[in-house]
Amino acid sequence: MNRRILVIGLAVILGALMMVNTEVTAKEKVLVIGDYSPVTTMDPAASLISQNIMMARNLFQGLLRFKFNTAELEGDLAESWTASKDRLVYTFKLRDNIKFHKGFGKVTAHDVKFSFERVMNPETRSPMRSELIAVKEVKVIDDLTLEISLKEPDAGFLAKCARPRPLAIVSKKAVEKYGKDFARHPIGSGPFVFESMTREQIVLTANKEYWEGPPKIDKVIYKTIPDMDTLLMVMERGDIHTTQILPREDVILNRLKAAGCKVELLNRGAWHHLKLNPDFKPFADVRVRRAIAHAIDRDEIIQHVLSGQAEKLNSPVPKGYFGHNEAGLRRYEYDPQKAKELLAEAGYPNGFEVTFDTFTSPSYLPVATAIQGQLGRVGIKVNLVVLDQPTWMKKITSATTQMSIYLPVRIPDADIPLSQFYHSAGFPPGPNVMRYNKLDKEIDDARRELDPAKRKEMYHAIQKRLMEDLPAIPLFMMQYPTPYRPAVIGGMPQMDPVWGFDFYRFYFVDKK
Question: SS3 letters for 440-493?
Fold first, then answer.
């Protein structure tokens, strides 16, 4: 019965995709994106998974944004900005005549103030709240001017004003009108306008009043295709133009190239780490955490699971982020005998049994399966529980998972991963599953230090301590093979510190 339902469901998906492919006229430029997981919310304050973030970056604006293909900042809603000498007060001047979608009026400083305070409010339960802990007050000077006062200096504050996270600017009127339903009625001022949302697809249309000019495509259709074989098939057939996550096997990538797709290897600054919940008794012992680190053969996973599209990471701060430094840090090379000795010292000579939560992403499940097998070699029986992505994320943000890998993309500054994953500000609903807080003061001190050289020294000391305590185990820096049809170009950067695609950059190549 279940198989019959699956077949019928796939047939419906394929039929819908064929309709999309054949109904697009020469006059209407429609970008079709496929993904294995649904968008779960359109509210940027609650957007933590990659699919939600991709929607947020296209529907909303920030005060600032990252320049395309770089990690450099430029103005978005903000036309200009200044900082006081002590870096405690930032003044932003907004662009005039930027309008919210669907007649919700001009974007004003009142909307910016509201958006900040909404993320900062504990009742909102935003997982990005930890990134704004330095903000003391947001004051409206006039409709186009606002001042943001900090409790203490925050060397990375401007990067935290970039869309779409930790905050995107929402319409105050729309949030007040829709309340909790704002997540299904998002109103921003970005290059695309929300049209409709079902579990199967999202439809966005071009914002003809966008301040930089209307997008070069008229519509975006985001299709949820949970079966990976089906996703690959429709990509080969040309029913979708691109997808952001794929299996990494060479045979699959070669299949897509043979079908006429191009494949770009994107660097998003994404890193895999293994979260260990100390509520599970064995993980409260550092010897067990170190044993697990020694039991994981990362070289084997990189070569045989990730097709070489990753590199080892030996720090809780990702490579390429300000403050990353692996020099002198304790390392945990593959040593199964050492792992067994540490387990015996901790009182687990015969290992133990643990539940490992993951989901169906090709960036997660194959890695989790490999780790399951490797830990089994040292006596740790891992029960792999494969969930859908939204359910898995709830277990992360509620800290109810015993063990899970996590693959984030963040602003490329050490303060962001340290504050989110190793500071009490990142406790649930943030992603600090480990509830680690032993270095709160040191992380706070580094954030407020304005001398870059001193700040790097402080982050180096923090990284040393974290690699000793090992609340989580750093694994890899990940690259993303991203296929696209050659008719659509412009939206594939070499690097991008934000999840998903910037739809505004895409355009169709005219057929001659």
Answer: HHHHHHHHHCCCHHHHHHHHHHHHHHHHHHCCEEEEEEEEEEEEECCCEECCCC
